[in-house]
Amino acid sequence: xxxxxxxxxxxxxxxxxxxxxxxxxxxxxxxxxxxxxxxxxxxxxxxxxxxxxxxxxxxxxxxxxxxxxxxxxxxxxxxxxxxxxxxxxxxxxxxxxxxxxxxxxxxxxxxxxxxxxxxxxxxxxxxxxxxxxxxxxxxxxxxxxxxxxxxxxxxxxxxxxxxxxxxxxxxxxxxxxxxxxxxxxxxxxxxxxxxxxxxxxxxxxxxxxxxxxxxxxxxxxxxxxxxxxxxxxxxxxxxxxxxxx
Length: 245
Hints:
By secondary structure, the protein is an alpha/beta fold. It has 8 helices and 10 strands.
């Protein structure tokens, strides 16, 4: 379950990215000149008010949305030069994505959902590896269950196992606990950071939770589609203890 992107520079480079969408009221500027670099192994919290462009930036970094202007490189690959098939290949092998909504396929079991990216990549051992992946998130006893038979927390763990299954270099997580209660959300976040540490995955995490942002080594705050703050997060005793896990 290991894959990597090879680049001599930062893992992620965003150069003056703009994204403008049309609306009945006229053009809406969602991203307005975002520039940043993320080094391999960093854990980055992306914070800011609703509507500040956090989710849109994550979609751009994942190649799910193309910017109006500017450039995005992941592992040295310019996403703007890749076609849809190449972008899908990049995501399948190198970029894991966890959304607030679980996005599981309802007609597939937990095992089938996790195995799917590996099957698409031609892995003959897809189901064996997927079973191991579900074991690591505590769901080895739920392999044959369908999403409707799982709790919200279990569904998110399945989604997380799927996101990590190919050993991504970069994991993008958009409010992964947004649909969960506080206790379940805390368990999911612990699981997320354990998986990230196990695979040494670079993490970009969108969150409104300041205590969760403390668990990351860096915090980027967006406001009105621009970076308002970019700093190394304060290392509180609680944050330090959690990061050491």
